[in-house]
Amino acid sequence: MNATIWHNPDCGTSRKTLALLQEAPDVTVKIIEYRKQPFTRAKLEQLFKDAGLTPREALRTRGSPAEELGLIDGASADRILDHMVEHPILVERPFVETDKGVRLCRPQEKVLELL
After folding, report:
1. pTM (2 d.p.)
2. Could you write out the DSSP letters of every residue in 19-87?
3. Whole-angstrom Cα distance, residue 87 to residue 64?
4. How far is Cα 41 from Cα 105, in angstroms, rounded to an integer?
5. Is the peptide bond before 55 cis (omega within 30 degrees of 0)?
6. Average of pLDDT values for 100-113?
């Protein structure tokens, strides 16, 4: 099985999720450090759709500029997506994609649903 993780090495949950993937038998892991390789809008839309989330539900508010950018109250999905592309730190993490689907792996045990 192939798995892709959109990873932030500074995030404990992201590191724990990556460890679970790397420990799983027969899983080949592709790691995308999204702060170095930012998301495209199309990829974000696909990840959110496949995970069953809205941009607002995938918005990281803690430790991000979401409030300063006016994204907390009343911002449209399009506006949130535009800012996520510009500021990848606004995307909650980690997202993982396998043949079984996409999950926002918070808590990290959610990754087990994809294995």
Report:
1. 0.94
2. HHHHHSTT-EEEEEETTTSPPPHHHHHHHHHHHT--TTTTB--TTSSTTTTT-SSS--HHHHHHHHHH-
3. 9
4. 20
5. no
6. 97
Catalytic residue among 11, 29, 69, 85: 11
Is 105 considered catalytic here?
no
In tens, the pLDDT along 27-67 reads: 999 999 999 999 999 999 999 999 999 999 999 999 899 99
CA angle 93, 47, 64 (to 5 degrees): 35
Residue 98 sits at φ, ψ, to 5 deg, of: -135, -175
DSSP state, residue 91: B
What are 33's strand-pairing partners? 7
